[in-house]
Amino acid sequence: MDPKTLARIGAIAFVAVAITATVIELSRKEERPEATPPRQAQVGAADPLRDELFRCQSLGEAGPRDPACLRAWAESRRRFLTPGTTRPQAGSGLPGSSGESRSRGAAPGGE
Length: 111
Hints:
The chain contains five helices and no strands. The protein is mainly α. The chain has a domain at 46-82. α3 crosses α4 (67-81). The chain is elongated and about 75 Å long.
């Protein structure tokens, strides 16, 4: 068989497969995800840090200049990097505003 003919057959087969895949994809019914409420509604218990982080996220570019956001991000990093501490103690408000956060999650033997 001539190489030109073989190349043409290969090109035609490739185009046919591409067209078939496109038609199949376009004929699919679009699956819409279930309407989920905002992320805050999914939170089980009220966490002031999470609320503050959402507020800081909504600030956009002003977030890095907001002192409350800086404290919230520092506490979030501390929680993430310190094993075993995920929730603040009851009644402590937004953690990270005083030295209490260091004494709670500190490892035995000091820093």
